[in-house]
Structures are given as C-alpha cells and as structure tokens.
C-alpha cells in the first residue's frame, strides 16, 4: 500500500499525529515537498517532537525515512533536528536518506523573505520567514544550489560566489549588510559533515519498495489552501501541496498511490494573512485557540480560529481524490453548547463556490451555517466509536455527509494512541 497524507485546510490539521500513528505499519515514510515552514507535532512514548524536516514516521524503529528531492533544506535546522533525535535515542544510521537533488535554503533566502514581506507592508503574506518563497523562486529560475553542489567544495564555492554577486546587490539596495562568502562557505562545510552520512539518491530505494509492494507513507506538509496554484494566492506557500506534487517531489507515479487520506481538523485554523470565511473573532474563536492550543509549531504565532468549513473540504477531497479523511481534535469541541458547520458560501444572495474567484472574492463571501448541538461528556482519549456521545457522532456524520467522503480515523487527543479507527 502506498498511502498519502494531505493537509486539507490551511495547515496544522494534525498531520504529524496521523503520520506517526500510520507509520507503525509502514516500511518507508517520505517527505516530498516544502521545507521547515512545516511544523508537525509528534507525541508518543519517546516524548514530544516538533518535526520540521525529518519525516514523522521516523519513530517506528523499523521504518526507513526519506527526504525526497522536492523538499528544500535549511541545513542548520536539519542538523539540529538530527541531533535532537539522536539525543532522544532514535537511531538514524542507515534509516534516513536525503536526496542530493534537494535545494538548499541559503542565508540570503531568509533575508530576502523578510525584505519582500517588509516591502509589501500591509499586503504581506505573513510567511514563516524561513526563506521558502525565495528558495523555490531560485529553484525554478535555475539559480538554486543543491545538496549535490555542496558535495563538491569547488562547485559549491563558485555557485555561492555567483549567487552572492546578485543577492548582495539586492540586499544592499534594500538597506541591509551584504553577506560574507567565506563565512557562509565555512558554515556549510560544517553542515555537510553532519549530513554527509545520510545523502543517497533515494530513487532506486523507492523504485524497489514500489516493486516489492512495501508499505509506503507519504507525508504531505502545509494544507490544500496554501497550495501555490489552488490555494488563496498570494496568501499561499511556494510548493505543490496537492496529490500531484508526489510525482515531481518524490519520483512516485500517480497511479501507484493506493490511498489518499485528507487530514481535517474539526474546526478551521490559519496562521498568516489571507481570507478565512468562517473565522471567529469572538469568544468562541478564543475558546478554540485556548482549548486547541492553537499556536504555531514553527513560529509560535497565535493561529486564527473558526468553524468547520465544508465548502473547503469538499473541494479538497475532489481535487486530491481522497479515499478517506482523518478528522482530528474532536476533543477540543467538548463542552461547546452549539457547534456550527459552514455548508456553503453566498455572495450578494447567490450561492458561490470556493473556486469561483480569487482571494479578494473569498474575503467577501458569507458562510451559510448549519447549527448542531454540542456535547458535554469528554471525548478525550476515546478509542471506540461506540463510546462517543450521540451529539459527537451526529457531528461526525454531518461532516461526512457535507464533504461526501468517508471518515477513516477520528483523533481524540494529541497522543499517538488517542484515536478511533473506523
Ligand atoms: P500538523 O502541522 O498538521 O502536523 O499539525 P501541528 O502539529 O502543527 O498542530 C496540531 C496540534 O494539535 C499539535 O499540537 C498536536 O499535538 C495537536 N493534536 C493533534 N491531534 C489532536 C487531537 O486529536 N486532539 C488534540 N487535543 N490535539 C491534537
Ligand atoms: P504545516 O505543515 C501553517 C503558511 C504561512 C504563511 C504562508 C506562506 O505545519 O501544516 P511560507 O513560509 O511557506 O512562505 O509562508 O503559508 N504556512 C503554514 N501555515 N502550517 C504550515 O505547515 C504552513 N506552511 C506554510 O503561515 O501564511
Ligand atoms: Mg504544523
């Protein structure tokens, strides 16, 4: 089985939790896009880990983890993530493979990310500041530096020299201090030493795993509405979040994917700027943020919170071809007297769809709500569907009906084992 896990909203749906759970039965786990703008939380018997680059499935001691070519790498972050796992007793030797095709997030990318945001002022995207947009821009405009370049000191130094001759001019023009080629070069040689044992072209490993029908888990990052093409542009990220990103980002044929699981929070959150039709700016929004501990795993920013938006998830399910969904954070809704689901959008009295317009359009649509009764009995840690309160079952059934996709898993807590399998 090849299973793909996709974030279905604006990120932070609980992908880390679901991937950690599913990895128990997997032979391989693969990240195929994005960078350390992702922050996937894993809580299991080894402790609590905010994972940014290394696939969350690494905690299954039998699994092999692959950072495939579509991922962009900040080597400082990767180095400290490797060190944190080693300190926790997780062996990475002969278990972690990093594609030499991965592009590097360079120090100038992070500075440019900030400078672009500052220049845009109120119109800024609210990026994570990790240099994601500028790194992917350099990748597609043939100005990127890859791991394979770093392996050859002469090639790396020359590419760095050329890039700095361009980037330093931009950085200086925008009032910042130019960067030192020597300092960056020396720093990257230290990173290279740390990651060198893990660099290996993963394509033949993946090819054989597919041939041998191994269990492969693909760990998506971010969320559908941050997708560079189908998200709320320009309030998006730079990579392809959708199912289609797997072939380019990991070298896996689309027809090899057997199961596509959309991860869906029982409410909606968003970090950064951009339209959010069901956003709550009232006490309910605050309650969701507090109870759900909705603060960014990567940046610590408070997440904007709102009701479940079925119009979004219907679209996410169709465009990705979900075979099922994993609904997370049911326990966060415990104690709400009334719970709302946005069933559709209206604009000037007419029903409209997500894809009818752009971000400006979405900022003006009005959510049409259906109100359901909440439940008072706690659902935290429940493992059997039959133990759920009737109102919680009704809420889940309504989600399934609205989204027209089967619920495969219901998560009832942040720990690996707090889950209902349907
Ligand atoms: P990801 O980026 O999609 O992996 O999600 P994050 O890790 O950024 O944010 C999800 C947060 O919710 C993390 O703190 C998880 O530990 C937590 N979480 C995941 N599933 C559940 C759940 O079912 N209930 C509760 N209360 N917390 C959960
Ligand atoms: P995970 O994988 C939540 C958002 C940023 C910003 C926009 C662009 O943990 O779900 P970027 O730094 O990518 O250029 O920022 O995208 N963003 C995320 N929000 N979770 C994420 O990842 C995100 N990755 C990017 O907040 O609005
Ligand atoms: Mg996250």
How does this model look, in words?
- The protein has 422 residues and is α/β, with parallel strands linked by helices.
- Among the domains are: 107-195, Adenylosuccinate Synthetase, subunit A, domain 2, CATH 1.10.300.10; 261-421, Adenylosuccinate Synthetase, subunit A, domain 3 (Adenylosuccinate Synthetase, Chain A, domain 3, Alpha-Beta Complex), CATH 3.90.170.10.
- The chain contains 13 helices and 19 strands.
- A hairpin with a 7-residue loop joins strand 18 and strand 19.
- The two termini are 18 Å apart.
- Magnesium ion is lined by residues 11-12, 39-40, 297.
List its salient traits.
binds magnesium ion, binds 6-O-phosphoryl inosine monophosphate, 19 strands, nine-stranded mixed beta sheet, Adenylosuccinate Synthetase, Chain A, domain 3, single chain, alpha/beta, 20% strand, four-stranded mixed beta sheet, 13 helices, 422 residues, Adenylosuccinate Synthetase, subunit A, domain 2, binds guanosine-5'-diphosphate
């Amino acid at each position: 089985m090849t299973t793909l896990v996709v974030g279905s909203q604006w990120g932070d749906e609980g992908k880390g939790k679901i991937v950690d759970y599913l990895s128990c039965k997997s032979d391989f786990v693969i990240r195929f896009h994005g960078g350390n703008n992702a922050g996937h939380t894993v809580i299991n018997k080894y402790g609590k880990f905010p994972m940014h680059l290394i696939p969350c499935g690494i905690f299954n001691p039998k699994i092999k983890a692959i950072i495939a070519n579509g991922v962009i790498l900040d080597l400082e972050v990767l180095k400290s993530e490797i060190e944190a796992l080693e300190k926790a007793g997780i062996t990475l030797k002969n278990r972690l493979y990093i594609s030499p095709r991965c592009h590097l997030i360079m120090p100038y990318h992070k500075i440019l990310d900030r400078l672009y945001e500052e220049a845009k002022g109120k119109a800024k995207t609210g990026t994570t500041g990790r240099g994601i947009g500028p790194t992917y821009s350099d990748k597609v405009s043939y100005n990127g530096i890859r791991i394979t370049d770093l392996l050859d000191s002469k090639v790396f130094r020359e590419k760095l020299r050329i890039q700095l001759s361009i980037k330093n001019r931009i950085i200086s023009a925008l009032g910042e201090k130019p960067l030192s080629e020597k300092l960056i070069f020396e720093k990257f040689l230290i990173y290279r030493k740390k990651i060198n044992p893990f660099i290996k072209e993963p394509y033949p490993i993946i090819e054989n795993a597919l041939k041998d029908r191994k269990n492969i888990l693909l760990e998506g990052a971010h969320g559908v509405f941050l997708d560079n093409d189908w998200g709320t542009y320009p309030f998006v990220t730079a990579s392809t979040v959708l199912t289609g990103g797997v072939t380019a980002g990991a070298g896996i044929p689309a027809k090899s994917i057997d199961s596509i699981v959309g991860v869906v929070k029982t409410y909606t959150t968003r970090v950064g700027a951009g339209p959010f039709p069901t956003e709550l700016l009232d006490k309910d929004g605050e309650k969701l943020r507090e109870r759900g501990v909705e603060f960014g795993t990567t940046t610590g920013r408070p997440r904007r919170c709102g009701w479940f938006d079925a119009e979004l998830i219907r679209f996410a399910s169709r465009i990705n071809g979900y075979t099922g969904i994993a609904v997370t954070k049911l326990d966060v809704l415990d104690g709400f007297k009334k719970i709302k689901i946005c069933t559709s959008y209206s604009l000037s009295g007419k029903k409209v769809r997500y894809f009818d317009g752009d971000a400006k359009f979405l900022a003006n649509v009005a959510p049409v709500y259906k109100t359901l009764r909440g439940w008072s009995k706690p659902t935290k840690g429940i493992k059997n569907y039959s133990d759920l309160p009737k109102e919680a079952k009704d809420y889940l059934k309504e989600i399934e009906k609205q989204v027209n996709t089967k619920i495969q898993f219901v998560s009832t807590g942040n720990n690996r084992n707090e889950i209902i399998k349907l």
